[in-house]
Amino acid sequence: MLQPSLAKRLKRWVRYWAVRVALAVIGRLPIRAAARLGEAFGGAAFHLVAGERRKALESLAVAFPEKTEREREAIALSSFRHLGRSTFENACLPKLDHSLNPRIEWPAADRQRLEQAVRRGRGVVLVTGHVGNWELLAQFLIQSGVDGVTVAKELSDPRLTALLDDFRAQGGVRSLWRGADGTAKSILRALRSGQVIGILIDQDTDVQSVFVPFFGKLAATPRAAADLVLRTSAPVVMAFCQREQDGGYRVSIEEVAFDPTGEREADVVSLTAKLTSRIEDAIRRAPEQWVWMHRRWKTRP
Domain residues of the chain, as ranges? Predict the structure, then answer.
């Protein structure tokens, strides 16, 4: 394997220590102060980081062609602010523990949907996306007594992956990393033991994917969730943690019914499309709470 260039290694070293110092500093702030500071950083990034702003506006033009340019710019700015706020809030998560609960609404009906799926004894495939605050969703569910793990893709820098793994573990969240030896077997064991497996499928990444509609345009979408459901017959639920007007969050859970036809590839595409449609619905409810700077349609059929 080729070693990264000296410049790339230096860039990774600077980025790693910048993230580590930022986590240490922001984590000491009261969460409300961290949230306000994060919004300010996000707003500044929108104006200063031209490349990311351009990608966000290009994505919004695909998703909302009916909106004016000014309307899409407003959504993009709000998206940057939301991401900054969520990131800074997340830096405070390990110290919050059960004080999270008053800030998060989890209606009884949604809780019962997840509990009913778990009681079937086949494990649960929980699907979500980079909508609202997905890190908070994972920690909240674990601290609420849900027995589960998340499946995640390693970052480009192994040190950042290890830092993220340790950070999540402080909140009780265990991650199974896609590239690690034995991850596939660990996922199957977890399902067979009745655990909840959390998977995000809303980004175009270097994993096995199928093309399904996303805001009316085919997008390469990870197939792992559909493959797991079809292989194990585990129930599949959608889960989101989206910000409300008062600054708190609401967790929503929906079970997605699916009847396989027996045509494996067609079933994978059909189920992935159904799950992606639910993610699109959640984004449409609050478009400023998705990561529009991600190039969702970069891979073409």
Answer: 6-289
